[in-house]
Amino acid sequence: MIYSYKIIIGAMVVFNVAYLTYNVTISFKDDPQTATTDFFDDKQYIIDTPGCRIENVDAFSEEIRNFIYKFDKVTCADSEPLTYVSRSGENVTLNINNSLLNTYSRFTVSCCYSTITRNHLAPNPDDDITFSDCTYFNDSVLISENFVFVKCTNFYHTVYENVHATLQAPQDYSNINAPNILLIGIDGVSRSNLIRTMPKTFEYCEKNRWVNLKGYNKIADNTFPNLMAVLTGMNFSQTSHVCNPYERGKLDNCSHFIWKVFKEYGYSTAYAEDTPTIATFNGIKTGFIHPPTDYYFRPYFLAANQLSAKYLCLRAHCTGSEKTGIRMQNLIKTFLSTTKDRTPAFGLFWMNAFSHEDVNCPSSMDDDFLEYFQELQKDGHLEDTIVIFFSDHGFRFGNIRLTHTGWMEERLPFIYVWIPEKFRLAHQEEYKHLQQNSERLTTPYDLYMTLQHILHLSNNSFVQSPSQGCLECQSLLKPVPLSRTCSQCGIPQAYCTCSTYEQINKNEPIVLEASKYFIGRLNEKVQSYGNASRGCSVYFLNKVSHARSLVIKSKSEQNVMVVVETNPEAIFEATVKVTYDKYYNSTFSLLEVNRLDRYAPKTFCVKDSPVQIYCYCKSLLKQLTNIFCNNKFYYLNNKLTSELRRGQCVVLH
Ligand SMILES: *[C@@H]1O[C@H](CO)[C@@H](O)[C@H](O)[C@H]1NC(C)=O
Ligand SMILES: *[C@@H]1O[C@H](CO)[C@@H](O)[C@H](O)[C@H]1NC(C)=O
Ligand SMILES: *[C@@H]1O[C@H](CO)[C@@H](O)[C@H](O)[C@H]1NC(C)=O
Ligand SMILES: *[C@@H]1O[C@H](CO)[C@@H](O)[C@H](O)[C@H]1NC(C)=O
Ligand SMILES: *[C@@H]1O[C@H](CO)[C@@H](O)[C@H](O)[C@H]1NC(C)=O
Ligand SMILES: *[C@@H]1O[C@H](CO)[C@@H](O)[C@H](O)[C@H]1NC(C)=O
Ligand SMILES: *[C@@H]1O[C@H](CO)[C@@H](O)[C@H](O)[C@H]1NC(C)=O
Ligand SMILES: *[C@@H]1O[C@H](CO)[C@@H](O)[C@H](O)[C@H]1NC(C)=O
Ligand SMILES: [Zn+2]
């Protein structure tokens, strides 16, 4: 039949855009549970206080077992890197490891290096780097820039390429008794998913007195607002006003970034993110005109991404001969050794490469993280460094997200806090409070307050300011009240895990009404972006796949949460507030919208606009065939095929 042929073509178009992956072994294991169970709570609630009760959802619950598997560790190259960086005092040297030369070539090899600089004069400096001419060197050479690209050739071809951070030491000395503070983040990993995919890392943290904040609840949907809450204390509408990431220059002018405060108090600051195209402040946002921190690693990763890549989970898992995740780990160490004995260090190191696209993908890095934390400990770095090892939210789309477990996890990112012994002894009360708060409801705004509190403890001339997004939020080194509720700590109702929504019948009239209302508002939302959304299709309701309800005030107010599938094919979760008057007439308002399907391949027509999260590109539909079937108009997609084969269908060209 003619349409089944076209279906295949249509599906392949999408496939090519999204799934260009390198062949890497994936092993499926029958039993995914490899962590020792000593550290699991078997309590019914992880948080159980008068103000909040959070259900203890089993990380291996029956309904998600089919979605869990493990990725093998990836090997990026057969031999170790041919070049390495060493430092002695202020001298930073790039070296060739001569003992490896014959593994790279049988012939004479010569190497040259280029310095990499951010191009300040470019229209978009965050996306523009310049390489100097390549200078040949033998054995080793002194470097005076922060980043270099190195290339080695034999008589015939290039045998090796790499990018190194050759960080230059800070100019001044200051306040060296203050602790270093590292924010090490892995995007989109819930507490349960850490347990599932990184059991060794989880066990390391549990065994070594890292404090697990089990009731850390996200405050908004995706990365940007949740990270901004940590870095500025503001909520999304406030950042849109004063630190608008869609308006050029506003992020530079955003005086609220906490790294600016740390710099003012003598810290050296750093910010790195491993996947330039989807970085928190770039991607569809404007990025920075000037480097926001003393050490800014964007040029490093732009250059690393030009090396030949091996893909895993749709991202460059290997950039050249090194794992992207290990590059990040090494940069953190380099940052610490560069600043050591000169200034304290404050850095945000954010990883997307092995976690953003597949809920199981962090398993590929479990061994690496275990070894890394053990090394940091062995090298003494953990003696003077506070580490916040955390995420921004759980996994946000796909099959797992359609289950109750997935719904809970999406709202509960993992977070561990490492406090060095020296600090624990000097501030025993504060440390005790932190431990107690492990079982209280906490938020990213509290983390913002905590960072300020730590700075205040090392220099009490620093005056802390409240978090604007949540005036009642507080340092986690002080006791969080047991009576705390979501609304008291800036968590919108739709993301609150304290009060669980009840499953309701999806055929109830109110569910259909709320879904139709939502589709109307969704189309308006798309339209509201004006010309930017010209390429986006109008949505129709296809079906309601789940519905949950939370009664707020008996008889007069209810939140209805629906998961709807649309035509053309997208999946949204919407929270609609329903208010009833005395005649039981209802009025609706839209509280939250989340998109649950993988939308990047469907939204290439609006890549640089915030409308992306709501869009489905019309041009994609043109590549598919429209058909009329069972009295309904369909856009063809691979999911509908079997249903359509059974129906009475007319192909429309
Ligand atoms: C740094 O390099 C200079 C020039 O090569 C040399 O004189 C000096 O001793 C080196 N300093 C250290 C600490 O290695
Ligand atoms: C140089 O390569 C050898 C052989 O792999 C390795 O054992 C050694 O650690 C490397 N040296 C440095 C400084 O990285
Ligand atoms: C490197 O060594 C070779 C052979 O000894 C020599 O000819 C060349 O000039 C040297 N290059 C540099 C940049 O020192
Ligand atoms: C505390 O901060 C003030 C203001 O920046 C500075 O003058 C002072 O030296 C700092 N104190 C210490 C111990 O670093
Ligand atoms: C940023 O601040 C500077 C100095 O106050 C001002 O001149 C500039 O217009 C501001 N830029 C934006 C985009 O707000
Ligand atoms: C942000 O905070 C302000 C002030 O508390 C509030 O009016 C606004 O509704 C909040 N916005 C969001 C998105 O939470
Ligand atoms: C929108 O697009 C139309 C047609 O290309 C153009 O005439 C109009 O000026 C655009 N409007 C805005 C606000 O950019
Ligand atoms: C509410 O319901 C009453 C009784 O069913 C009806 O008369 C009235 O028109 C309704 N009001 C609105 C605003 O729909
Ligand atoms: Zn994120």
Automatic annotation (TrEMBL):
InterPro entries: Alkaline_phosphatase_core_sf (IPR017850), DUF229 (IPR004245). It holds the Pfam family DUF229. The chain crosses the membrane at residues 7-28. Keywords: Membrane, Transmembrane, Transmembrane helix. Gene3D superfamilies: Alkaline Phosphatase, subunit A. The keyword Transmembrane helix applies. It comes from the Eukaryota. This is DUF229 domain containing protein. It comes from Molorchus minor.
